[in-house]
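Researcher: Quick test of sequence recovery. Tokens follow.
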């Protein structure tokens, strides 16, 4: 047998023994960890036995208890089904609860309470509704539980007298409580809505109420994981065309120059009219000072009188007499 072959056999044997030793050490560690886990103190937590949605009433058949490490029980969880259903009246779910999800006090109402927006509101928060349409409401893709930014579009008159439109980000990261009269966060089909209700502090509620009458409110849907606000700035019509501040200043100077020329022309016209009125007034004053010339008696007008004279009637008249078919005329004296 050659020396190389012998060396390979020896090395293979050594590596095999080393692998067995390492596996035994790993298995011993796993057994020790399992033993420590079995010794951990455990408790129970109430979870949902079936999917629950907004407004579903809790009952014993919809809940169940599962083992849970005693040191890792979520805040507001119930240890027994009896504790979850304790009190007079039923409890209702305030949001969607999945199967095996712990039932927390913040996700359900108190005993005998209804699932309303007032039960969902946080401490010191208010519910404010915003009127929207199919466009301003993000085409109906905003659902309860989403976060939105609220934009305010308005038009104001500048110092030059021209109307200027602009958009400001009024509020950021507002939580949507309901769309129309639906507060179920499990709703997943987009619908065209007329109003969106958001959760706001007292000051933000005042801003929304004032902004509703100052301009047009619209929504911008935020990313689900985006919770921090961002720096925003006002957007005007000049931002749409890409004009620089120098371009805006130049155009504004041209507008000012044109407006000044129009004002000067109007002032000149007014001055001309004023002078014309003054000349007419002066002329009227001069005419008023002229004395009228004395009247001269004129000779009486001679008129020719024509008198009609009745002609004297003839002394004789002709009288016709028919004798049979023959006409005979006679001149006879006229009777006075």
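Model:
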């Amino acid at each position: 047998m050659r020396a190389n072959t012998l060396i390979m056999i020896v090395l293979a044997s050594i590596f095999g023994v080393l692998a067995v030793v390492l596996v035994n050490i790993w298995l011993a560690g796993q057994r020790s960890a399992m033993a420590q886990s079995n010794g951990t103190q455990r408790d129970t937590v109430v979870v949902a036995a079936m999917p629950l949605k907004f407004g579903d009433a809790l009952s014993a058949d919809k809940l169940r208890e599962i083992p849970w490490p005693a040191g890792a029980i979520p805040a507001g969880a119930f240890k027994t089904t009896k504790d979850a259903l304790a009190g007079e009246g039923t409890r209702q779910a305030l949001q969607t609860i999945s199967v095996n999800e712990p039932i927390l006090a913040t996700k359900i109402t108190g005993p005998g309470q209804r699932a309303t927006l007032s039960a969902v509101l946080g401490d010191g928060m208010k519910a404010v509704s915003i009127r929207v349409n199919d466009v301003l409401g993000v085409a109906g893709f905003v659902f309860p539980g989403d976060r939105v930014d609220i934009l305010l579009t308005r038009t104001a008159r500048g110092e030059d007298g021209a109307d200027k439109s602009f958009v400001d980000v009024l509020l950021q990261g507002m939580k949507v409580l309901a769309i129309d009269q639906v507060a179920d966060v499990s709703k997943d089909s987009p619908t065209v809505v007329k109003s969106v209700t958001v959760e706001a502090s007292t000051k933000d509620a005042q801003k929304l109420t004032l902004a509703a009458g100052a301009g047009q409110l619209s929504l911008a849907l935020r990313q689900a994981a985006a919770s921090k606000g961002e720096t925003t700035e006002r957007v005007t019509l000049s931002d749409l065309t890409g004009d620089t501040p120098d371009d805006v200043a130049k155009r504004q100077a041209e507008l000012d120059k044109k407006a000044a020329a129009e004002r000067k022309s109007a002032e000149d016209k007014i001055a001309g009219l004023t002078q014309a009125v003054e000349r007419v007034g002066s002329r009227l004053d001069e005419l008023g000072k002229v004395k009228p010339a004395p009247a001269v008696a004129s000779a009486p007008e001679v008129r020719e009188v024509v008198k009609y004279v009745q002609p004297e009637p003839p002394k004789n008249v002709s009288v016709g007499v028919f004798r049979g078919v023959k006409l005979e005329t006679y001149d006879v004296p006229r009777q006075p």
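The longest strand covers residues 163-179.
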